[in-house]
Structures are given as structure tokens and as C-alpha cells.
Amino acid sequence: MHITKFFPKDLFADHTVFVTGGGSGINFGVAKNFAALGAKVGMCGRSADKLERASAELGEMGAQVFAQTADVRDYGALESVLQATESKLGAIGTLVCAAAGNFICPAEQLSPNGFKSVVDIDLLGSFNACRAAFSQLQKTRGSIVFISAGMSIIPYFAQAHVGAAKAGIDNMMRNLALEWGRFGIRSNSIVPGPIEGTEGMRRLAPGDLGKKLKKSIPLGRYGTTDEIGQAAVFLASPLASYITGTVLVVDGGQTLPGS
Ligand code: COA
Ligand code: NAP
Which of 83, 149, 202, 245 is deepest in the core (most CB within 10 A)? Predict the structure, then answer.
């Protein structure tokens, strides 16, 4: 993988990364970049099929993997996966809060439960993961990486639910940086731009909308799952040892005013 040309292949030897929703898309790209640098990988998601496929691919890369189904809205289920991860792979050094849901719906048509579902998965689910992983992160003096979105920064049409959830995540990220710095725990977010071949882009910019969107991005293209994985690796690495409370925007300039 590209990342092994720039970082040592044993950077994360004896390091456990846990990725919520790690079985597909951007989050799986994050898991693969950590695995390429020697990390042990824990993951959860709702679908066993996705986790099995992802685990097999990570296993082929030589990674030790533990994956179990859990809905991030269910604190008890998440807690038991995180505990099992610690006993199988060792205490978590990097927690990636990345599980999310999204659909297009104008606010005047959105039901309260539709709004709640996205906030519960993205925001409450991220808090659940941080809270349940806290004792492990305290042991490792580890770090948290949240996968946010551009909706946290600027409003997007028909995305009131996602904007509320992701802005909540970024502010919680700063709170945790403030509160957990005393335990040596760092907390940062990544705001990915539109990423090629993902479920998110299938939902948000199908067909011709995608072509139009690409033209509006200063770098003129979608990003890749590896480009988000590389940013996550950097934030979790010793190169970022004094970085906490930061939102790292990896979007080809998409959210720049006027873009
Ligand atoms: N438009 C408007 N409302 C929608 C909707 C849509 N496309 N999809 C779901 N909802 C509403 C439902 O109608 C329901 O509200 P109601 O009870 O008032 O009718 C509410 O959202 C919950 O729906 P449900 O299907 O029970 O949710 P879920 O918990 O099974 O799934 C979602 C969560 C809705 C976010 C689903 O899209 C999902 O699982 N997404 C994960 C994958 C994904 O989104 N990937 C991209 C990440 S960027
Ligand atoms: P994706 O493949 O659908 O990723 C979402 C993952 O979360 C899936 O593996 C899904 O698996 C899991 N998940 C969803 N609800 C869950 C729940 N309740 N409990 C546990 N796991 C759950 O979509 P993606 O587009 O790659 O998005 C990944 C992340 O990047 C998200 O945080 C998204 O907001 C962010 N993002 C994406 C883009 C983009 O261009 N795609 C841009 C900006 C930000 P199950 O369905 O099996 O549970």
C-alpha cells in the first residue's frame, strides 16, 4: 500500500485500533491503512457479512483481527465488543468513531424519528464508543479520531439531520480533548470530502450530480478511501503527539467559502 512508502511498516506493531462501522467504505480504508503498518484491528457494525468480508481482507494483509456485530446505539453491545477486543488484541490505542447513517431529506419532510436515527447513530454512537473505550485509552494514553463530514462546517440542502449530528461530533471532540488531555488521551476529527466509490456518495450524489460536484471541488476530483486512512494514521501517529482538539479537513478544498 501507498502508506508503507512513507511510514515504517512496524509503526503500529503491538497497537490496537478499533473502528466503529469498519466493515465498509471509508472506515474500511482507515482499517486497512492501520493494518498495513502492523496494527491489530477491532471492528463492529450491524451486518455480519460486511464484517466477515472485511476481516478476511485484513487477515490476508497479515493483520490480527477481531470483529463482532454491534449497533453503536446499543451501549451494552458496544461495551461487550470493546471488552472482547481488549482481551483478544490488547487495550485499544486508537479509537476511530466512524459508524454513520445518511440519506437525503428536506427538513420539512423529515420525521422526528428520521432526525433522531441519524443523531443517535453518529453522535450518541460516537459518545458510546468513547465512553466504553475510555478505560482502555487511559491505559494506552491513546487517541480518538472521529470521522466527521463537511455538513459540520457548512449547511447542505436536505442534510439538517447530518449537519446537527456531525457538528455535535466535532464539538464533543473538542470537549474530550479538553477533558481527557490530563489522561494523555488526544481527540481529533477528520472531515472527508466526497470520497470515490462509497455508500455516502452513492446516496448523496448519484449519476450526473456527481459530475457537477467534481467541477466544484478546487482539486477537481473525489478523494480516495486511502487518503482518509492516511490522515487517520497521521493523527494517531507520534508525528501528531501535540495535536489535539483539531478538525483536519481532507476534502480537496470542497468546503472553502466560494468553492
Ligand atoms: N428519507 C426520509 N426518512 C428516512 C429515510 C429517507 N431516505 N430513510 C429512513 N428514514 C426514516 C424512517 O422513515 C424512520 O422514521 P419514521 O419511523 O418516522 O418513519 C427513521 O428514518 C428510521 O428508519 P429505519 O429504517 O428504522 O432506520 P435504521 O436505524 O434501520 O437505519 C438509516 C438508519 C436510516 C440511517 C439507514 O439509512 C442506514 O442504515 N444507513 C447506514 C449506511 C449509510 O447511511 N451509509 C452512508 C454513510 S455517509
Ligand atoms: P458506509 O460504507 O455505509 O459506512 C458506514 C459504516 O457504518 C458501515 O460499515 C455500516 O455498517 C456502519 N454502521 C451504520 N450504522 C451503524 C450502527 N448503527 N451501528 C454500527 N455500525 C453502523 O459509508 P461511507 O460513505 O464510507 O461513510 C463512512 C464515514 O465517512 C461516515 O462517518 C460518513 O459520515 C463519513 N463521510 C463519508 C463521506 C463520503 O464521501 N462517503 C464524506 C464525508 C464523511 P452496517 O450497515 O453493517 O451497520
Answer: 149
* CB-ligand 2 contact for 161 (6 Å cutoff): no
> What is the per-residue pLDDT across 114-134, written as a single tens digit (0 to 9) for each?
999 999 999 999 999 999 999
The bound ligand whose nearest atom lies closest to the alpha carbon of 71 is 2
Q: What tens digit of pLDDT does each residue of 55-101 get? A: 999 999 999 999 999 999 999 999 999 999 999 999 999 999 999 99
Largest Cα span, the chain: 51
Beta bridge partners of 143: 94, 186
User: Which candidate in 166, 187, 189, 237 is catalytic?
Assistant: 166
DSSP labels, 103-123 = ----GGG--HHHHHHHHIIII
CA separation for the pair 183, 137 (Å, rounded): 9
Contact 162, 192 (CB under 8 A): no
Return mean pLDDT, the chain. 97
